[in-house]
Design brief:
- There is one protein chain.
- The chain is of the alpha+beta class and about 575 residues long.
- It has 4 domains: about 10-245, 4-Layer Sandwich (Phosphatase 2c, domain 1); about 245-350, Phosphorylase Kinase, domain 1; about 355-545, Transferase(Phosphotransferase), domain 1 (Orthogonal Bundle); about 550-575.
- It has a 6-stranded antiparallel sheet, with helices on one face. Strands 1-12-11-6-7 form a 5-stranded antiparallel sheet.
- Helix 10 runs antiparallel to helix 13 (about 450-470), helix 10 (about 370-385) runs antiparallel to helix 18 (about 525-530) and helix 17 (about 505-510) runs antiparallel to helix 18 (about 525-530).
Length: about 575
């Protein structure tokens, strides 16, 4: 369950073909149930099929129907922007491909599209073409979108950008804060070209409590003003932001009590504690066994030290939420309890392994290929989270379990960053729990937002430690907290500690461990490629062959050697003769 404000909205919409023979506009509004409304928001969108394209109607319908279906099918952890843009790029690619297959420009699949997503206390606008989104606030009407048209003269213009128009989609995006009473008006040019802003303002400024039928009335007004196009419009009013008080939010968070610290042999909800795996001031982890089925799992419980800390409780509940949404063999899986819970905890699969930190202590000179195979598994687990637009933020050997057959699993979601959750307003200051300093990228210590490149740095630190038993920048790294302090740090080549590490592999490690994230690899796949195969561009000058370091000198030496060989051969022939 994800907590947060739940919007209360009033909506109305209407579309008609007008004087035309068919309606090439398409509109849609979806206000889902409370949990989905909190996670993904409400959506209103309007599309106008371009009349010059024979399949404009089909394009408009495809955009509206498929966006509403696909947007709500994207991962709950994704931000609104990530979710919408992924769907829009795929839709545009499909429309453009259909147009290419038609082999006739007049049969293209092209339409305008304007989308409004209302989530928590934000409005997200996505727009391409000349349909419009307006905002009425405090009696002032503001056009939130810009028409993508080029004027030929005072009376003529042409559409410069639309869905299906080209393979590369350039869609406008912006977000604004919501206020109670905000009124959004979406329309196609058949309406807003024939209704003045003054008329729009007077119609939207004083909406009645129930305004069903108002959009139809406005469409009829545009038709009376001479509209010769299809006509469509929508009204979405924010009746309430659904903001909770801090007390209500805390009460909702703490529906279940904290369990007390458990000891071996104690039972909770039919689970018997077999071993204490971990205890700290923040949480406890126990190996437990279902007394009925005999199945073993790991129970994580919150620390009673934070029983009155709503930010901590929210983060603890999000750990279970994340585990339920990631399915990968290298990420620990959530286990559903066999009975209803009487206290706050969650269960994950039991993995009969040891922390990678112990493996590092036991393998001081590991086989290089074995290390690479382990690192590849770590990357697979981390990338599974990234596909959900989630950063782990605490990648370290203690959060990686390894079995006897070298199967690696990523555990512990206590420091994860989830954009989709961060967009949901909460009446408290959220915890920003960061990972262990010696494995975290410098940007965290400098107060900057982490990224996929930050995770690359952490995985590279783990790989370096597996190969050497040491950390790449030494003990001073953990204490650095300013640009100046980081600038003083010096990277120690991995082969300095372990001569078995190839120079070219150290070059790949060094690049992934750059203190400036802009100098790291663009992706994990590039890094893994260079970890397995020599990349001459990453090798130090002294380690490169002379032909690569200085080709001119190489060929001079080669020429002199050949000449000397020929002279010696000639001397030998003459001397023998």
């Amino acid at each position: 369950m994800v907590l947060g404000n739940v919007l209360s909205l009033s909506v109305d919409q209407y579309s008609t073909q007008g004087v035309k023979s068919r309606n090439e506009d398409c509109i849609g509004i979806r206000v889902p149930d409370a949990e989905m409304l909190s996670l993904k928001g409400a959506v209103a969108l309007i599309a106008d099929g371009v009349s010059a394209a024979e399949n404009g109607k089909e394009a408009a319908e495809t955009c509206v129907i498929n966006f509403l279906n696909d947007y709500y099918s994207t991962p709950d952890s994704w931000s609104v922007k990530q979710s919408a843009q992924k769907v829009l790029v795929a839709l545009n690619r499909w429309l453009y491909g259909q147009g290419l297959r038609a082999l006739d420009e007049s049969r293209g699949y092209v339409c305008t599209l304007s989308i409004l997503v209302l989530k928590s206390t934000k409005a997200h606008i996505f727009h391409v073409g000349d349909s419009r989104i307006y905002l009425m606030r405090d009696g002032v009407l503001d056009q939130l979108t810009t028409d993508h048209t080029h004027k030929i003269n005072a009376e003529q213009s042409y559409l410069a950008q639309a869905m299906g128009f080209s393979a590369h989609l350039e869609i406008d995006y912006r977000s604004i804060d919501l206020e109670e009473g905000d009124v959004f008006f979406l329309s196609t040019d058949g309406v807003h070209d024939f209704v003045s802003e003054q008329e729009l303002t007077s119609s939207l400024a004083k909406l009645p409590g129930k305004f069903e039928g108002l959009t139809r009335w406005m469409v009829n007004g545009a038709m009376k003003n001479g509209s010769d196009d299809n006509l469509s419009c929508q009204i979405v009013r924010v009746d309430s932001l659904g903001l909770q008080s801090a007390r209500d939010y805390c009460n909702e968070l703490g529906l279940l009590p904290f369990p007390p610290p458990l000891s071996v042999g104690q039972r909770l909800d039919g689970y018997e504690v077999k071993r204490i795996i971990h205890e700290s001031h923040r949480s406890q982890a126990y190996l437990v066994e279902d007394v009925e089925s005999g199945e073993r799992s790991v129970m994580k419980t919150p620390s009673v030290n934070f029983e009155d800390d709503p930010a901590y409780i929210e983060r603890f509940r999000h750990e279970e939420w994340i585990a339920a949404r990631v399915n990968n063999p290298h990420v620990v899986k959530l286990v559903n309890p066999s009975v209803g819970r009487s206290a706050m905890y969650y269960l994950t699969e039991y993995i009969p392994g040891v922390p990678l930190s112990r493996w590092i202590r036991d393998n001081t000179r590991p086989d290089i290929n074995r290390v690479i195979q382990i690192v590849e598994q770590i990357v697979k687990g981390v990338r599974a989270l990234h596909r959900k637009e989630t950063l782990h933020q605490d990648i370290k050997p203690d959060n990686l379990l390894i079995t006897n057959d070298d199967r690696v699993t990523l555990i512990d979601f206590g420091s994860c960053w989830i954009p989709g959750i961060q967009e949901i307003n909460a009446p408290l200051e959220r915890e920003h729990a960061l990972g262990t300093a010696c494995y975290s990228a410098p940007e965290y210590a400098l107060g900057k937002r982490g990224s996929v490149l930050s995770e690359q740095f952490s995985v590279a630190v783990v790989a370096y430690e597996m190969l050497t038993g040491e950390l790449p920048y030494g003990e001073a790294y953990e204490k650095a907290a300013s640009p100046t302090a980081f600038a003083r740090l010096k990277y120690t080549p991995a082969y300095h500690y372990n001569p078995l590490v190839p120079v070219w592999m150290d070059g790949a490690l060094k690049k992934a461990l750059q203190l400036d994230p802009r100098r790291r690899y663009e992706s994990f796949s590039e890094w893994l490629h260079d970890m397995k195969r020599p990349n001459s561009r990453l090798m130090p000058e002294h380690a490169l062959p002379l032909v690569e370091r200085n080709p001119l000198v190489f060929w001079k030496i080669t020429a002199l050697t050949l000449m000397a060989t020929q002279l010696l051969t000639l001397w030998w022939i003459l001397h023998r003769g």
